[in-house]
Amino acid sequence: MKDAEGSAFVPKDNSIWLADDNGRAIYEVDPTTGNLKRMIGNATFQATPRLGGGQVAGSTRDQDIESMAYEAAKDAVQTGEKAWGEGKEAIAKCKEALQLVEKRDWEGAKENGEVAKVKFEQAKQDAEDCYAKAQAAHQMLPGQVQDALGRQILLENVSSYVAFRESTISEWEFIGEVARRADCGILLDVNNIYVSARNHGFSAAKYIAGVPADRVVQFHLAGHSDKGAYLFDSHDAQVPESVWDLYRIAVARFSPVPSLIEWDDHIPELEVLVGESRKAAAIEAQVLGRRAVAS
């Protein structure tokens, strides 16, 4: 169904969307009542030309939605960069004002202070716009990849070597919230937890305790390299006992779920790999109080 206002389309999740031909907004409509549920706007959507003259409602538009989500996210980033630039300009004007105060140039200091105030207000407004656009882009993304694949995907925790200067939540809280919003599973890499915990000084056991138990559907185990100042997730050796100890904690909280041994470099004989796999099965059986399955 298409009219002078734009196009209507229905993705695989059976939601109903309207897009205007100017490409500045899309609207989600309640399929039962026909009422407007939400509007996502203020972005340049790459797929709009196809929407304007595309297929009618009832067709699939997953690729269009993903493309629009990408463009909306890019618009949010650009707005954030603009806010950052304006903030830096405001700080520079404040520094100039202080220098003029030291020289007792009151008029010049006042002028720079007023410019700084305007820049700060612009930066604040752009920062708020950036947040709103990021939220809008986020609303478009969850479930789209899974809908296209027809199955649930897994989010894996990384091994990291640098940290954010400031953060309001822990990594495990962040991963859990992303998994919840996207309704995806978590592939819990136990070695990555150990490596990151050592590198950044947090508790690996606390990390495991903070991950939502209902989201974890697979474990990864691997060896790492000790570089002195940090650990490196090298996947080139047997799983160390420290990681096996952490695996026991993970099994007690999340199992039974499948476990995979990762070994990407300095690959040994098959018997060594099989031995690692059997050790994982034996530990799981021991923790869960049942007999290990021979493999």
Feature tags:
single chain, 295 residues, alpha/beta, TIM Barrel, five-stranded antiparallel sheet, four-stranded parallel sheet, 9 helices, flat, disordered N terminus
Overview of the molecule:
α2 (62-102) packs antiparallel against α3 (106-140). This protein has a 5-stranded antiparallel β-sheet. The chain has 9 helices and 11 strands. The relative contact order is 0.07. The termini are far apart. By secondary structure, the protein is α/β, with parallel strands linked by helices.
Describe the protein's topology.
Elements: E1 2-3, E2 6-9, E3 16-20, E4 25-29, E5 36-41, H1 48-52, H2 62-102, H3 106-140, H4 144-149, E6 154-156, H5 171-182, E7 185-189, H6 190-200, H7 204-210, E8 216-222, E9 225-226, E10 231-232, H8 241-254, E11 259-262, H9 270-288
Parallel strand pairs: 6-7, 7-8, 8-11
Antiparallel strand pairs: 1-2, 2-3, 3-4, 4-5, 9-10
Main sheet makeup: 5 strands, antiparallel
State the helical fraction.
40-55%
Low-pLDDT runs: 1-7, 42-62
By CATH reckoning, the class of the largest domain would read: Alpha Beta
Brief synopsis:
This protein is of the alpha/beta class and 295 residues long. Helix content is 51%, strand content 15%. It has 3 domains: 2-60, no CATH class; 65-140; 152-288, TIM Barrel.
